[in-house]
Amino acid sequence: MGKISTYATDSNVTFADKLIGTDAENSDETKNFSVGSLLAMPLPNVPVYPNNAAAVAAGLPVGKVYRITGTDHAGIVW
Question: Which of 12, 16, 46, 50 fits a disulfide with 69 by CB distance 3.0 to 4.6 angstroms?
């Protein structure tokens, strides 16, 4: 495997694209994960707010993840 900086950048990311990572529940084996599978992960234990303004008003710092009310979608405070 070459240096990460030598690989081309994919400017058309799709749900089927793969990322490489570690499976912590399986002896830290190296595995592929699709972008879609990561985005579909449930977000339990993450604060829930209707939008960024509400998350900021509640005191969440920039960069903190929250779940958007009524969805399994994540928001990131900006």
Answer: 50
